[in-house]
Amino acid sequence: MRQDERVSATRASLLGAAERLFAERGVYAVANRQISEAAGQGNNAAVNYHFGTKADLVRAIVRRHSEQIELIRARLVAGVVDADDLREWVACAVVPTTGHLADLGHPSWYARFIAQVTADPALYAITKEEAAATAPSMRALKEGLNRCLPDLDAGVYEERSAMTRHLITQMSVERERALAQGGPTLQSSWEDLATGLTDAITGLWTAPHTPRP
Amino acid sequence: MRQDERVSATRASLLGAAERLFAERGVYAVANRQISEAAGQGNNAAVNYHFGTKADLVRAIVRRHSEQIELIRARLVAGVVDADDLREWVACAVVPTTGHLADLGHPSWYARFIAQVTADPALYAITKEEAAATAPSMRALKEGLNRCLPDLDAGVYEERSAMTRHLITQMSVERERALAQGGPTLQSSWEDLATGLTDAITGLWTAPHTPRP
């Protein structure tokens, strides 16, 4: 193996170990040393050497996925048939995640990793930066959604955006965890979860909203 | 202080410390010894002595809250004005949590504690057992909801129940964490969060559902 291939293999193995440990235990519960050990690296400083800080490591893991996710999203956004149909745009927000999880196969840790990362405000900011950098289709998706949404106060819009994010993440976590533990799953496939989420999130966005003081 | 008062104060202090540590770090990341220390107990075996296993400790924390939550839920269910109005029943599902969090004041850890506990299938089963044991109003709430819900496949019903649970938990976690960190919050009060959740969850339940293969 050439030197650059060896470096690349080491980095991939560290990223994989970090993703799994972060997903299972939480980002701050895991020391860089444990990641190096789980990746079979004799050198305990391997994470620092290859990635720098923990935030840089999280960024590298997010990037690896967001490139794949962007491919799915770009294809979906380009394939929208009726640009005035809210449900089609909601599907463009849901399927990049569920489709990516289906592509990852079994076992995956991505859903649980993202749930841990987005629960931390500083790390969540990193994932948003990465998404902005690597997801040119996100802008078209937002425009499409906004075109179909009812007129909402800014506060309600922010709130329902957060709800959408939590639903996609937590329902994916629930399915990924059930698959990992060999337990029963609520849906027979990731496609079925996407259908259920798309229906429900469309209902959530079109629900009447009560004025607040 | 009498002996039984001392025992009672020790138990309360251990429960408070355990709830905070579980909320911040996750149930399995925290050792009983750390809880004893955080509660200012010289005896490292205090948790084992007073509560037994970690599952017993989680059950005791859940019970302390579920008694308060039941009082709110029972009052709301008894006060339903139009039993055919889905939104009223959804409010009976949302407000016991948000109202309890408002009652706890600042700082609270309950939302983050519940998120950690319900993410673990074994611990989640404990909270459901506790809820069944301490929440007689839950049955009336379920009957009220079922009375108003559209006809749904069992799978869709289960799925939307899970979504409802995740929305209430995660939106409460987001607000509780923002308050704890002194950051901006999406809503100006727990009451506003309850209104937003009730609107959205009503929309989620009444959304048309696409048949699945």
UniProtKB/TrEMBL annotation, chains A, B:
Domain HTH tetR-type, first and last residues per copy: 14-61
Domain of life: Bacteria
SUPFAM superfamilies reported for this sequence: Homeodomain-like
Gene3D superfamilies registered for this protein in UniProt: Tetracycline Repressor, domain 2
InterPro entries with a match to the protein in the record: Homeodomain-like_sf (IPR009057), HTH-type_TetR-like_transc_reg (IPR050109), HTH_TetR (IPR001647)
Keywords: DNA-binding, Transcription, Transcription regulation
Protein name in the entry: TetR/AcrR family transcriptional regulator
Species for this entry: Nocardiopsis mangrovi
